[in-house]
Amino acid sequence: MSYLLATLTALVLLNSEAFGKSVTGLFKSEAARQQRGQFITKFMYQGSDGLLVIRLDNVPLATEKESRLLLFQDMDSQLESLNCSERISKAQHAISLTVDEYNQTIPKESTPTAWQVLYADRYTCQKDAVIPSHPDLSFSILLFNADSAGNPLEHFSAEEAGLHTFYFLLLLAYFIASCIYFKPLQQALKKGGPMHSILRVLSTVLALQGCSALCSYIHLARYSRDGVGLHLMGSLAECMFLCIHISYIFNTENIDVIFHLAAKTHVETSFKAPGSFQHVNIEGTRVLLAAAHQAPHQSQRFVYVSTDEVYGEGLDQVFDESSPMRPSNPYSTTKAAAEYLVRSYWDKYKFPIIITRSNNIYGPRQYTEKVIPKFLTLLQTNKKCTIQGALPKSRHFLFVDDAINALRLVLEKGIVGEIYNVGTSCEIPIMQLAKELVKMVKNVPDSEVNDWLEFVPDRPCLDLRYPISCEKLQQLGWRADVSWTEGIRQTVKWYQDNADFWSDQEPIRSKLEKVTNK
């Protein structure tokens, strides 16, 4: 009965109105130079004549930069061997982006054909030219089938049709297997015996896998029509997929310690997509807690790494572990909510948890959305450091080695059920940070430092500072060993020596987000 209801629900959702396929993002001059044409998307196409619609929000800037979109057909292996100028000349279609909407016909294909889309502009092949500090170009690209009158039709690409068929066959196999084996499995579970635990784990995994396949089927079928899909179904599929693997690991391995650091952390993004932060930071924590608590081998420690931002802004107050939580943005709110989940397992089950709340951690290999690597990568690509707002903001910075030592000490000497602040007295105004990095990277005199700073509008609810007291952790014997001077020196050197790590980084996305943003 439940399977029938799920199937009917899927049919209702799939028959609702849809409009076409889409990819959104930013055209970036520096990325185009680094990659000899910025990779935008790749799609497999099969069917009648298609229609590619490109939309821009800043046509004057695109015209000034001589922006172009390059389309390559079945040239994956050849593109790597071509230099910048050769790549541009080999494009099957070169679209000059001089209007706010441009329509490009994709010819009829009887077999699956791979199309690759790159962005280029006047700076792409000029290695020595200085790229002005213009904003990146926001775009959306939509792919339709078109009839003879140019009207878009619903369609599957070859790749998506294959995925959709795979999930349909997988669902069919699960349905047939459940019809055959449900009663024998139910009877075996009732009898108990030495195989009881194995059968219980196996049946749980298979049930979750079947539900995940159903959600993926619904999500991808809708996505192949509108380029958006059903985020609820996608999230459920990803969550179930995660549950399957985490449950399997905890049921088959003897795991003693869990350090839970996984999270979505970019504050500005959390205002644009709060749902994804809730899904990852709260639901992900719940899944991990449940799997660890229910595992046959009981874990000895579950260390949850939170943030000083849960306290909210502190102008004159220094926060200790007993201070109330007053998060001021969606990111810190999800971290506070996850803390309550973690504490509930201690309060109800005496599950051995410890919570840490740390300052801004920095060091080599940090993702470029964070302030220090963001400034470093901007400067190394001849762009200005962007300072948000006019109010004097500052942050406490903790070097990654000191953060690791703190977590190790908490594991060895920390008291279960307790919270520990992890931070330093190294508070640096963001303006001072930017100027210091300008001097280190650009090697300019003081009189020219301000030329590398650019003031931009403030983001919502930007707290000025987060001062915390670490006395409780220091009583365990912890001290920050790496000075700011040494830590920032190591960090700057690493980013200068490893441009290949950060030159083409894009926002971190989940597995299903990657599938639906090809």
From TrEMBL:
The chain crosses the membrane at residues 166-185, 197-220, 232-250. Residues 170-242 form the GPR180/TMEM145 transmembrane domain. The gene is LOC104962295. The keyword Membrane applies. It comes from the Eukaryota. InterPro entries: GPR180-like_N, GPR180/TMEM145_TM, NAD(P)-bd_dom, NAD(P)-bd_dom_sf. Residues 23-127 form the GPR180-like N-terminal domain. Gene3D superfamilies: NAD(P)-binding Rossmann-like Domain (3.40.50.720), UDP-galactose 4-epimerase, domain 1 (3.90.25.10). Residues 1-20 form the signal peptide. Pfam families: GDP_Man_Dehyd (PF16363), GP180_GOLD (PF21870), GPR180-TMEM145_TM (PF10192). GO terms for biological process: G protein-coupled receptor signaling pathway; response to pheromone. GO terms for molecular function: catalytic activity. The keyword Transmembrane helix applies. The lineage of its organism: Eukaryota, Metazoa, Chordata, Craniata, Vertebrata. Keywords: Membrane, Signal, Transmembrane, Transmembrane helix. This is dTDP-D-glucose 4,6-dehydratase. Residues 246-491 form the NAD(P)-binding domain.
